[in-house]
Amino acid sequence: MQHKVKVTVIDKKLYPDLQAQYCAEPESGMCSCYNVGDEFIFERYGTADDFWHMGLNTLKQTVHKAEDIAGGTGFPHCSEAWDAISRYIYTGLQGGSIMQGWMNDEKVMIACCSDGTRPVIFKIERMDYKVLYIDGADLNECRSEIEKALRQVDGVGEITFRDEYVEVYLQKAVSDEALKEAVEKCGKCSVVKID
Q1: Among the four 17, 72, 104, 188, which has the fewest Cβ within 10 Å?
Q2: Residues 113, 106: contact at Cβ < 8 Å?
């Protein structure tokens, strides 16, 4: 099983009275590094290792230009945010429990950056998936059949086709055998390996 981590900005706060009292720029305003709704995906598979680059190029969705947002193409995550969320991202990428006993789902954590005058609040989610290497047919030819067969397996969520493999996201534990059997029922291909 493999793991990715999705980080979503779910809120931003502003404490103008604290900024006015303590900040060198008393009207700094809201954090400009993030926007509510920004989504980032961290992965560590193959040659990808987003964690060690402080999330550079992990931005997948924003309402602004990617080069203007932390985690986009221009700069990595803000150090105040990174200090607060990186431990949960690392734990999730290793397949660990992000916050067992505190959140109602051990794969989720709500955390905020350490800027006391304009904190940003993040939802951090571990995404579990398996990588299927399929042989015997062109994946594009059999794509719809494979996808339909995999969707019938209880616990399978999103399915993403890559050039060399298929990512099958799981909502709960699913055995390798169940995934292999579903794909091979299509009759045109076989599963060579599952990571």
Answers
A1: 104
A2: no
pLDDT in tens, 27-71: 999 999 999 999 999 998 888 888 988 888 999 988 887 777 888
Neighbour-count burial for 166-194, b at 16+ CB within 10 Å, e otherwise: bbbbbeeebeeeebbebbbebeebebeeb
Which residue, among 39, 43, 40, has the nearest Cα to 51 in the 3D structure? 43
Closest alpha carbon to 47 in 183, 179, 164: 164
Look-up of token digits 């429990």: 97
DSSP 167: E
92: which DSSP letter? Answer: H
Q: Which domains are assigned to the chain? A: 2-128 (no CATH), 136-194 (3.30.70)
Question: Any bridge partners for residue 59, and if so which?
Answer: 40
pLDDT tens digits along 109-145: 999 999 999 999 999 999 999 999 988 666 677 888 8
Q: What is the DSSP letter of 104?
A: S
What is the SS3 string spanning 132-161?
EEEECCCHHHHHHHHHHHHHCCCCEEEEEE
Residue 172 CA to residue 72 CA, distance in Å, equals 31
